[in-house]
Amino acid sequence: MDYSLKVREIHIRANKIRFVVDGEFEYLGPLSKPKIILHFLNGREDRRIPLVIPKLGQDEGENTITFHSDYTYLLDQLFWKSRNCGNDIRMYAHVLYGDYYEEKIPVKIEPEIFEQDGLVYQCSIEENSLVFVHQADWKKKLEHFERVHSGWKLKRMLNKIYHWLSFILALCLLPWFLFDGLLATVGIIGYAGKDQANKKTLLGKYIVHINARLHYLSQHKISFRNAKKAAYNWVTNTKKCRLIRMYNRMKNSMAVEPQRISFISVRRNDLSGNFAFVYEKIKDDKNLDIQVYLSTKDLFHMSNDEIRRFALLCATSKVIVLDEYTPYVHYLSTREETRIVQLWHACGAFKTFGFTRLGKPKGSPQRTAMHRSYDYVTVSTKNVRICHSEGFGIPTANVVPTGIPRSDVFFDEDYKKETRARLFKQYPMLQGKKVILFAPTFRGNVKEDAYYPMDKFQVDWFMDAVGKDYVLIIKHHPFVKEKHPIPKEYRNRVLDLSEETELNDLLFVTDLIITDYSSLVFEASLLDIPMLFYTFDLKKYISERDFYFDFQSFVPGHFFYTQKKLEQAIVNQDFAQEKVEAFKKRFFDDFDGHSTERVVKLLYQAMGE
Length: 609
Description:
Largest sheet: 6 strands, antiparallel
Shape: globular
Number of helices: 18
Radius of gyration: 28 Å
Strand content: 15-25%
């Protein structure tokens, strides 16, 4: 692999370091992007964090691509458990591009500008690495720095005062703005603002005009939606403070119960998935005090009793077991002796998440505590440890390749047989047919704005093209609330089972999977099911979300940009199934059905620490 990397500028100010980096790589195609991972080590923890590359460039006719990165990292936010230990930090760079991966790559560190104030860290350059030496008297230096630059705080305070005074003045002028809006509505004066074209009614245009006047004067807008959002945030923040106060009070007055293990989820009301498998293994152990807290409520909707119980379990549990992102746990400063074990739901590593999305839209900021409290995260293979270390912002040693408990069912012949019989009895139209499972993931960033563009997959065209030997099961992501339209004449061959709770069970009756970027591919590979990938927005998805591995070489099957090409592959039985076996071996270490036992062993180990 031909590439070059040069650090052009380094600026260190207090706890911040700004890198200006240029790079050049051999061109591997429009779907492949080089990834530079910065690896920081302080002797107690390590942290992988991506070098933010906003845009790649390519000169016409050239076989190389170039990039320029200018990004500031917060040195005091790199580590979580040992962020106040005052250790020196060493930094290396790794590269991942296509199927090529190399650690501690050669980097030309000869900055044209090298500025540092020496307040907290003094940086030195060694071959292929940077060393940040922690200053012994950094607190005094930092205090002096803040006194000298106290004018910054004054400016921010004056800025806030100015905007609030402007807002009060705007409210006083509101009657005039109302009259002004009436003049605009009857055409005496022109409208203010640029959003009138989107409003069909005079009332809508009137409100936009008034808001434009308010915004011009005060930088604030009045709307029912914003007021509702502000009220929601106020109540949520109030309850967050209440949770923290309750937790701290309990932590100071109660001891940790050495045998207490608590299963906590705010994404489910039932004990299912990884939770169910682990719970069934340990529920009969009389030496354990097993507690379960399951809810789908956010803080806004939680009662005082629910907040109190959540705080109690976090304050008194020796081991807290999670199965998804649980923000309320990260609000709390958990005890030194408490261990948090994340039984992450996904096998392998596919779409980027967490801190890997640094610098991308809705990416996690460096200062957030999100995910960083985990003492252990369970994954399916050692090959994805670095991905989860980077995504969660935790040391690589905290990621343990035990296997995924819920994947054990794929090695249980009795369970397979019983599940097939149950599904064929429940949905008799599946019997004697070739079953296609259409299971795409959602678009959008979070649950609240999740959707799938239904018009991109036309059910009637698809069923006509593939023939009457096939039936189709549609399984959208739980975040997608809209139903896929199914024409009446195809309802004897098409089922929408998006409400079916366990996606894995559907695999036991599936002959072919159509997906896009769903982690379902990992479970499907354990059953050697052929897969096709309908990725009409692949280039956009890579630019906005991206993957941990090169998509073209990663997916175990062909991918298509159009529904017509997808249909042709099914008619021609062109599935590239030979890719599935290699994929399976890459993303699973064990094929024995004993992942749950390894996770239980890890939990007992955590209990004894």
